Every structure is written in structure tokens, then in C-alpha cells.
């Protein structure tokens, strides 16, 4: 039997990562380049094509053995790979699938990066083979990927799963960049935590953060906040507690709507979950509508840095197979 | 070819409606009884079985021609028809499917009443053949039914689609009966509108409502509120405007999450939608995350009183066919 490989691309704000992945989800070779956002989409797409070419040469595979290319983008795209927007790399209406397809001669499949991470977890990680799951990336922002009935669900027009922009309350501190007030990611994300800490510091509350950041609030990282909380610092504790409370509000909403088998937590904040996971589970159990059926498991993602590459490759595999049915 | 019929049951707080429905969704005969909630679930289930029997006799069908029975309940149930709860008829953990199945000798399929209404709209109404849609019942409370990829989606454990208990803000006036504050239905439902009107009246705001209700705030109906708003009454206008604003918040949330093809509005409030639909669509378009892709249609349901019966029968048809695959 001939082996088939898929190429997974993780297009992020700072780097483009690419990998050759087996049908079973093992990365055999990977590489990356900086994302040249300021030079426009043509440059970035050419860089992706070059990465693909270089990986094929280095791996001594000829193109015949590659079944397709999956690209995870920080934005939303149609099933055909037309990128509606990818804000932090300044893309609007870019025909990524078509252009990259012509350059490489391979079928290209594009989806949101959180969706790709959800696929990786579904194939190899914590939501493995769960029929219905929601994956959350708790990073700078708050993204989501949804699997329903064993398939990626991105909405009818490819613009769903924007979990971070679900209104969950009123945020008295700041509006969301999307123009609304009260988006979930303004309460439960790295940015939300940093903003909350800055506000508390501006109220002259004493905190170990001053020392950790050499008195520059712009240098606060989520690691400072979790470290400080572990040390018992009042400001850091308040920040983590509020983030946890709102994480519970949004997760309870998702359970009331989707009632998934598992909700998986990924992204930078999830790496510190030992500090808040028990409290989060408790608060979710108190908020869900059907309290006696507290069945949705809340788990921390298992895959590391390669999740974006693996998920994109597995997504390409699944879509290519579906197209060939 | 032998004709097959399905029986649809709409179990509500005040009445049990039943109908014999063709495979195409036409009601050929229907009847109803009062819901004897206080006499317990056994009595109600026996009443349902009696209704079924009486309809079969009156229609001169023998049982052979009936493919199955669908029951819409005001609560949540497993796929096997085990009712976890149905608060306003005082049910907890009732094996409705099993009991009614034994009494009638027919396969019984149970789901939430809003889900059944969603199925009716999908088969014969405004969401007809849409792959992905959300149906909202804007009545005393706020219920929902979700169709994903042409199939009913009720969650992994059958307790999803509780849209009314999505937290969307802080409600300074009252907590939700579920124990949380800020549930969508405390802002956008008949109960929410009445409570808001009562509050404004208690602040001595002059209003035509006093005349319409003979100065008894407990007699306020949503019709009084919409009538008053059409007459330009300040209290009624405020009530309708706030309901519309929060309806837009929640619908934008659903679009950001599900990105459906259509969101259909049913229930008593939707009957007055000529008064707020344009404003609602405008506000939704301003709130959704991908503003340039304002593609989800917001439509008023087309089916009348029989939607519950028809939906339950069509649900039974679809589930029975799936089981026989």
C-alpha cells in the first residue's frame, strides 16, 4: 500500500509553521518562517508555498505522496479557502485556497486555527473520538473549535464558533475590539487578565507585580499573574478569580447550548489550569441549567506546540477523503 | 403502497394536544384534553394513551398503519424518552417513552417542545430544508430548537438548546428561576416584558396600561404591551425596546456561535413581530462579529397552533426511519 502524507500549515501572527504529517497524525518533518504580515498576503502565500517545497525536498518525498494541504488561519474562511478576514495579519478577502492550490498543485483546505487545534485534539488528544466537543483556546484572545456528530462545525457560512464574542455581561473597564461591550474574551483571556491587573495596580493596590515587572504594567504576563497568585498576592488572586468566574459563565453557556461530551481547554492559560481547574468545575456545576446532569467533562488539552500543524493536516485528510467519497 | 401515519403529541402546561399526521405532515384528525398536572405523571401518561386510542377509533385506522408516536414535552429527555425534568408539570425522572410504548405498543420518541416546533418549521415552514437553523419560541419563557446538518441537535446527553439560560448580562431587577442572574429569558420573554412593565408602573410612570388592566399590574399581557406601544405609550415602548435590544444581543450570540442559515422566531411575541422585526434585524447586524457577512436570515415562523403536533409526528417519522436503516 502506498503511504499518503498531508501537509499542515499553522499560520500565526508571528510565524508560519509547516509540517509533513502521516495519515495517523505523526509529524515527520517540520519547519517555520517568520510571518511577513507587513509585506502583504502575496508574500505570505509565496512563503507558505516555499516552505511546502522545501519540506518536500528535505523529506525526499515527491508531490505524488501528498494528499493535500491544510492551513489554519487566525480568522475565518469559506470551505473553499476564501479568507474573509484575518485581522492580526491584515488580511481581508484573500483567495488563499485558490492561490496556494495553483502554486502547489495540491488541494488546499482552510479553517480557523482554533478549529484546527480542535481537530488535533479530536484525532490524537483529549477529545479523541468524542462525537460532540468544544475546544477553547485561552490565549491572548479566546477562540473556539466545535465538533458535532464527529465532524467539524464552522457554521453555515464558515463564520461560526466565534465563542470569544459571545456577550456574557457588562464590562465596565473596556469595550471589545469588535465594537461591542461584554464579549466573553474581555473577561476570560490573557488580554482581559492583563487589563484587569493594570486597573488594580492603577488603584495603588500593593502587589508583587511591581517587582516582577520592574514597575512597568505593560510587562505583565499571564505567568507573572499565575506566579503571583500562587504566592498569595492579592492583585494576582483577584485577577485569576475573576477570570475563573467568567470562564465558568461562558462554559456554562456553551453547555446549556451545545451540551457536549467534553469541553477541552487549550492555549497559554490552560497551562496554568492546575491553579483554577477545580474551582472552575465547581462553578460550572453550580451554573448549568440541568444541575443534576453535570456530565460534560472539562479537560485540559494534551497536545503541545505541534497541535496546529497536526490539526491542519488531519483536517486536510478528512476533507480530501470526504471529497473523494 | 400502504399509507403510514404518525401520531404527534404536544404536552403543554395546560393541555395535551394530539393529532394523527400523514407522512407529509398533514393533520388528518386531532383532539385535546386538559393536562392534569396535579394528579401526577401516571394520570397524564394514561390520558395520552387514551387520546391516542380515541383518535385511532375515530379515524377508523387500525394500529398497523401508525409508524410511531412523537411527544413534545416542556422539559428535557433522553433519546429513549426518559424525561429528566418538565418543571411546569412537576415531572422529574419519568420513563415516559417506556411507559407510553408499553401502553400503546408503538415506538415512542420524546423531545423538547421547542425542538418539535423546530422540526415542524424545518419540514413545512420557514426553515424548510435549511441545513442549519435555530428556532426560538418567544413565549412565557424563551426556548430553542436547533437543526445542524439537516438533523435535530439536542446535545450529547439531550440537555442542550437551553438558549433561554444563556447568560447575556446582569439583570438588576430579578434573578432567573434557575438560580442564576442574567439569563437571556429574564430579558427577552413574555415574563421579562411583564416584569419590566410592572417595575416602570411601580415608579409611578403614567401609562395606558392602567386603563387596559383596570389598574391591576398582574393582568398585564404581552398584547397590552404591544397595543400600548403602537399607541405610543412610553412605558410600553420602553418595554418593547428593551426586549428588542436583548433579543438582538442573544441572537447575535447565536450567530457568532452557530452561524445558521436561518433563525426562526415563533411563540406569542413573534406574532407581534411587525412592530420590532426591522429594528431587531438592524441591531443584530450591528452586533454580529463578522459584520460584512450579515447572512443569517431572521424570519417569523409560518406554522400556527398545530406546529407542536406536526413537529412531534415528523420527529417520530424521522427517528423511526433512522432506527430502521
TrEMBL record, chains A, B:
GO molecular function, one term: kinase activity
UniProt xrefs under InterPro entries: ATPase_NBD (IPR043129), ROK (IPR000600), ROK_cs (IPR049874)
Pfam families membership: ROK (PF00480)
Family in the record: Belongs to the ROK (NagC/XylR) family.
Coiled coil: none
Protein's name according to its UniProt entry: Glucokinase
Protein keywords: Kinase, Transferase
PROSITE patterns referenced in this protein's UniProt entry, alphabetically: ROK (PS01125)
Amino acid at each position: 500500500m502506498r503511504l499518503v502524507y498531508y501537509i499542515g500549515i499553522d499560520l500565526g501572527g508571528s510565524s508560519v509553521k509547516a509540517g509533513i504529517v502521516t495519515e495517523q497524525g505523526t509529524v515527520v518533518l517540520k519547519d517555520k518562517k517568520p510571518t511577513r504580515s507587513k509585506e502583504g498576503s502575496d508574500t505570505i502565500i509565496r512563503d507558505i508555498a516555499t516552505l511546502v517545497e522545501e519540506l518536500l525536498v528535505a523529506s525526499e518525498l515527491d508531490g505524488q505522496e501528498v494528499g493535500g494541504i491544510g492551513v489554519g488561519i487566525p480568522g475565518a474562511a469559506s470551505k473553499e479557502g476564501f479568507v474573509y478576514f484575518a485581522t492580526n495579519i491584515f488580511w481581508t478577502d484573500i483567495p488563499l485556497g485558490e492561490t496556494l492550490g495553483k502554486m502547489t498543485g495540491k488541494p488546499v483546505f482552510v479553517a480557523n486555527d482554533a478549529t484546527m487545534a480542535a481537530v488535533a485534539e479530536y484525532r490524537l488528544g483529549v477529545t479523541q473520538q468524542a462525537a460532540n466537543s468544544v475546544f477553547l483556546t485561552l490565549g491572548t484572545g479566546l477562540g473556539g473549535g466545535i465538533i458535532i456528530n464527529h465532524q467539524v462545525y464552522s457554521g453555515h457560512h464558515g463564520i461560526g464558533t466565534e465563542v470569544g464574542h459571545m456577550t456574557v455581561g457588562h464590562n465596565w473597564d473596556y469595550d471589545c475590539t469588535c465594537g461591542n461591550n461584554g464579549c466573553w474574551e474581555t473577561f476570560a483571556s490573557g488580554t482581559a487578565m492583563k487589563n484587569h491587573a493594570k486597573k488594580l495596580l492603577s488603584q495603588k493596590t500593593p502587589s508583587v507585580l511591581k517587582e516582577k515587572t520592574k514597575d512597568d504594567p505593560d510587562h505583565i504576563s499571564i505567568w507573572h499573574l499565575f506566579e503571583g497568585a500562587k504566592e498569595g498576592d492579592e492583585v494576582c488572586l483577584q485577577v485569576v478569580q475573576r477570570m475563573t468566574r467568567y470562564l465558568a459563565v461562558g462554559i456554562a453557556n456553551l453547555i446549556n447550548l451545545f451540551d457536549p461530551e467534553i469541553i477541552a481547554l487549550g492555549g497559554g492559560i490552560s497551562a496554568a489550569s492546575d491553579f483554577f481547574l477545580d474551582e472552575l468545575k465547581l462553578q460550572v456545576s453550580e451554573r448549568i441549567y440541568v444541575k443534576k446532569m453535570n456530565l460534560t467533562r472539562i479537560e485540559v488539552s494534551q497536545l503541545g506546540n505541534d497541535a496546529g500543524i497536526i490539526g491542519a493536516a488531519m483536517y486536510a485528510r478528512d476533507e480530501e477523503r470526504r471529497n473523494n467519497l
